[in-house]
Amino acid sequence: MDNFIFQNPTRVIFGKGQIAALKDELPANARVMVTYGGGSIMRNGVMEQVRKALAGRSVVEFGGIEPNPAYETLMEAVKLAKAEKIDYLLAVGGGSVVDGTKFIAAALKFEGADPWDILAKHAPVKAAVPLACVLTLPATGTEMNGNSVVSRKATGDKLAFHSTLVLPQFSILDPETTYSLPVRQVANGVVDAFVHTTEQYLTYPVDARIQDRFAEGILQTLIEEGPRALAEPQNYAVRANVMWAATQALNGLIGTGVPQDWATHMIGHELTAMHGLDHAQTLAIVLPALLEEQRQGKREKLLQFASRVWGLNSGDEESRITAAIQATRDFFERMGVPTRLSGHKLNGSSIPAVVAKLREHGMIALGERQAITPEVSQRILERAR
Amino acid sequence: MDNFIFQNPTRVIFGKGQIAALKDELPANARVMVTYGGGSIMRNGVMEQVRKALAGRSVVEFGGIEPNPAYETLMEAVKLAKAEKIDYLLAVGGGSVVDGTKFIAAALKFEGADPWDILAKHAPVKAAVPLACVLTLPATGTEMNGNSVVSRKATGDKLAFHSTLVLPQFSILDPETTYSLPVRQVANGVVDAFVHTTEQYLTYPVDARIQDRFAEGILQTLIEEGPRALAEPQNYAVRANVMWAATQALNGLIGTGVPQDWATHMIGHELTAMHGLDHAQTLAIVLPALLEEQRQGKREKLLQFASRVWGLNSGDEESRITAAIQATRDFFERMGVPTRLSGHKLNGSSIPAVVAKLREHGMIALGERQAITPEVSQRILERAR
């Protein structure tokens, strides 16, 4: 096990009816801006619960944060928040709304010329407006981490930043808010959480047994509960298990003291930027192809994954690895998420352009061994046609 | 899954050489009191590393905190800390030192007449001096929770309190500090962490899959690594796995949203108070007997435990449960910890007195269903003769 530091102070308030806790959790005199997305929270009763809990407070609302939140939109929110002297942000929605709100929080306190530098030049985040969230889509883990991914419409860039200063102060997770999610979003969320876990697990072994067992437990839970979430959308226990699994997949815990990959995410980001595919759709395309391409480097963990997660214990090692990758592919497909470019009517002609974008963004040595060069990324994408 | 709130802000600094981080982690102008136990840290180099990291600071040392830390001793520390105007406590040692230091932290700010009321009358802890720890014995999880257990020599009482105000600000966990631990303490630590896990896992199912899988992962890790820690005391990976398992066993995570038992602990505390047995020694005696006594109420989780933790999948249900309890008993014995009163040359004649103490302390409805009355506790102890 490698040395590590782990700290995650976010307060998670989990369960049915917990949105009412906003009343007590938000500081009494805060000037709050509620941020949200396309308005589904208006239809499913979530916003009504939020407004009820915030009755009598000074609240400004900012809607319209889109999937793959756009810098351009978020800067509008920054403008409004400055005008309204906002000192607390409450994101109500899924990963895009929360990620976008983290950027707003950092941009409001940014002292440089252009907050875009936080993303493009890794300009340090030295302060941020405190934020919290009501999560309505289990997927990204943003509710309990300091990560944010923001896109820029004008240039097609999709870039990430991380700061402990944008960790939510608290996050309310009510599984009932996920009952009305579209099938595609449920499926994407499960795939996203699954790939977050494999990015921290399918690398090379460092004999970190708690981290491995926890990662395997998350994967097993997603495999068991993901299809049930589609089949039984109002099954509370299923929704709760998926939601808590997604949080645990990316709150830092399973990544402590172990190597991490993240090449699937980096390649996937370029596919989203280029073709507008959903984040999770890109992960489902890249991961199986990447595992095939990296099967030697990831050999020991792939065998462990085959045995412990998929119960594949017979046959020779190569066939067990092949079967585990196929089982992963089948799982994504069973969730309704295609695992090839062709599943989105893409013939692969954009692969050179995607690889060029990787180069442009400095993504030239990806993976746990920094061995995924642009040439390897190209081979991965070719395998994913 | 039941509703829950989870928050654990303790900063864990894990790995070899991390004691040096004290230099940066402790606030610059703090007046620090370093608390410790019987002096093993003087012989194994830990105190030397601590003193080196604190060179040039205003530091007072208080040693002599005993196993099952005594109120009487801790109040001496309170007196010294007041005289020295201490505003930060650094516990260096195992669970007893850290638990004792938590009491010191709360007692220093207690406004009532007698800090013993925190334990005996559940007097609320409204403030505490900040504290941190350098943990040298993986066992109790105290390094990442707000729990403390304190004994009173004069009366033979052993009582607990909990407050988020005594959560360590940071905890340094260097597995190398555990190389020189006596065999008995290593074994006790593994048993303690194991039983912390079963207290939160072997109850009744609420379909909380992440919590179950994480608990099973901790148990599997302890079963794999516990005996290796005894056989290969300087195996870093083994020590690291045991240490991180013990932290995860009682930092709140696996207990979120699930029923909890704790009867084994409550009965065990009385055995320690009565006979001076080590805490873990009492758990190893009580748990197997309690599982036998409660096998109907815990039936479904015992079957899951048999299958997932012990790989027991054949035979009828009763025999699988029996085999799982026997495997648990064998594991404790293999760690060198006796699982019967007779293993400590006790003939059971004190059982009525132990049960009387349980009544005296209000422990009349223990367990996840509050069904363990003093009569049931008596039967458990009879089974443990």
What can you tell me about this protein's structure?
- Two copies of one chain form a homodimer.
- Chain A has helices spanning 22-25, 40-43, 46-53, 71-83, 95-108, 116-120, 183-201, 209-231, 236-249, 263-275, 279-293, 299-308, 317-334, 351-360, 374-383; strands at 4-14, 32-35, 59-62, 88-93, 131-135, 147-152, 157-162, 170-173.
- A six-stranded parallel sheet of chain A has the order 1-8-5-4-2-3, with helices on both faces. A two-stranded antiparallel ribbon of chain A has the order 6-7.
- The first copy, chain A, is of the alpha/beta class and 385 residues long.
- Chain A contains 15 helices and eight strands.
- In chain A, helix 8 runs antiparallel to helix 9 and helix 12 packs across helix 13.
- The interface between A and B is large, with 44 and 44 residues.
- Strand 1 (4-14) of chain A pairs antiparallel with strand 1 of chain B, so a sheet runs across the interface.
- The CATH homologous superfamily of the largest domain in chain A corresponds to Dehydroquinate synthase-like - alpha domain
Gyration radius from CA atoms of chain A, angstroms: 20 Å
The level 1 CATH classification of the largest domain in chain A is Mainly Alpha
Distance between the termini of chain A: 37 Å
The description of the largest β-sheet of chain A is: 6 strands, parallel
Number of E-type strands of chain A: 8
How much helicity do the residues of chain A have? 40-55%
Residues in β-strands, percent of chain A: 5-15%
* Domain count of chain A: 2
Trace the largest sheet of chain A across and list its strands.
1-8-5-4-2-3
Compute the average pLDDT of chain A: 97
| Level-2 CATH architecture of the largest domain in chain A | Up-down Bundle
